[in-house]
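Sanity check

After download, print the first record. It should look like this:
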Amino acid sequence: MKLFHDSTSCLLRLLLLAELFVHSSSRPTHVPCNVFGTMMHQVDRLMSASKKIHGLTKDELTNFAGFEHRLDSLPRFQYTAAHFGSLKVNESLSQLHVYTQSFRLHLDWLKTTNENISFSQPLEDAGTHLLHLSKLINTSLHQIQAEVPQPPPSPPSLPVVSTAFDALRFSIELSERLQFFCDLSKRVLRQIQRHSRCPRR
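Expected structure tokens:
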């Protein structure tokens, strides 16, 4: 009888421990809701700055319509409706962080290229807003105790630019991809807010 009582007590303890484990492991990631509004504001600023990095007007841009894209090292976005319906906070923020680092690398490359050929373009604002956005994402990843992605061991191979015309074409391509990134980022952040039930401001 005593053996039965001891076995029952042990089983109850195990069940309680198992229940505690399930509750703790299934607890949703604590989302830093207060940072998302700041992030989206920063994305808006980046969008505005990215439209200006080539220094062309809308009419002047039409002359470059249909030009082949040549920066294969720029991020490729493959989000579908299914992706947006099943976003995970840590994975989504990590991916956005990777994108920001890639764009920063390309902006730095274009800036150096312009300096080498004595060509001037308004790149500073976009670089500044990308840096701020990257820091906000980094902070959010730390707050949810997620690992911050590390840069690849070797940078991508970027083309050698010898003329102002080529630099201009690359800046247009970079501008277009940055604007697409901004649209994507806002959709991702809004979806995370919605799923995490963050209060609207």
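If your output differs, re-run the checksum step. Summary of this record's structure: The chain has one domain: 32-196.
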